[in-house]
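ugh ok fine here u go
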Amino acid sequence: MQYRRLGRSGLQVSELSLGSWVTYHNQVDTQAAVEMMAAAFDGGINFFDNAEIYAKGQSEVVMGEAFKTLKWPRLNYVVSTKFFWGLDRETVGINRRDTLNRKYLMQAIDGSLARLQLDFVDLIYCHRPDPHTPIEETVWAMSDIIRQGKALYWGTSEWSAAEIRAAYDIAERHHLHKPVMEQPQYNLFCRKRVEVEYARLYEDLGLGLTTWSPLASGLLTGKYRNGVPEGSRGSIESMSFLVAGLTDAAKNAAVAQLSDMAADLGGNAAQLAIAWTNRNPRVSSVILGASKPSQLQDNLGALALTPKLTPEVMERIDALTKPLTT
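structure:
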C-alpha cells in the first residue's frame, strides 16, 4: 500500500480506502464491520469513509462500534462523514434535509460524532451542492466546524468546478479554512468530471480526490453480464435505480473484453478497474465498497496490477471504454 497526500494538505491517506455506502447496517453488521475493517487495516488501509445519510445514520453507528471494538490509536486512522441529505428522506421538516445552511451543518456534525463515538472526524464533506443556501454561508459553517476542533479538513462531493472555485475564493478572501478535497464518482464509465471539468482545479487550487464507485456499482466486476444476480447491489430494492445501467449491453460487452485483458495481466476485471482508477495521479484515494472480507481481499489485489498498466495497456482500455463514458 502506498500513501498519498490529500491534495496540497499534509495529510496522507492510503491509495485504497474502505467505504460504507449500501453495505454497513444493510449487509454488514458490527461484527462483520470489525472483521473487514481489521482486514483493511492489516492491508495498509488507513482511511474509512462514511456519511450521515448512509442507512439513515446507522452506518455511522456500526462504524463507531467497530472503532470502539478495534481500539486503534486515533492517530492511526482517518475517518470521514458527509452532510446534505439529512438522516431520513421521508421526514418532513424545515432545515432537516437537502440543505447546507448553518443551522443544519452545526447540528449535523454533533449527531455524526455521537454516532461514531468520536471527539472529531478527520474529513467532512458537503455531500451535494445546495442551490438555496449562499455558498458563503456554507463555507463559514464548514470552516467554523474545523475551528471548533470537530473536524480537521473539509471538502465537497459532486460539486461543479465553478462551485468548488467559488467556495475556495470565498474562503481565501475571508481567511477561512479552504476546501481541500472533492469526492466524485470516477470509474472507467464515468470520467469526464474528473478528467475534463476539474482539470484546472488540481494545479490552481491543489484539489485532492477521494473517488467513489470504482466498479460502477459492480458493473465492472462482470457479475451483471447475464442479468441481476441475487444478493448483488442491483437486487436491493432501494438500489433499483441502478439496474438499467448495470445491465447495459454495450458496457457489459466491454467488461467481457476487460476481463480477458485482466486475465492476461494476472488479475480479474474488478482488480483492473480499481487499478485503472488508482493509476490517476490526481486521485488521493480510491474508496472501495465490500460486503464481505473475501471481496475486500480480492479488491486489494488491484495493487499488484497497477504497475502493469503500461501506456499500451491504458490505450487498449481507453479504446474499449471511452466511447461509453459520461
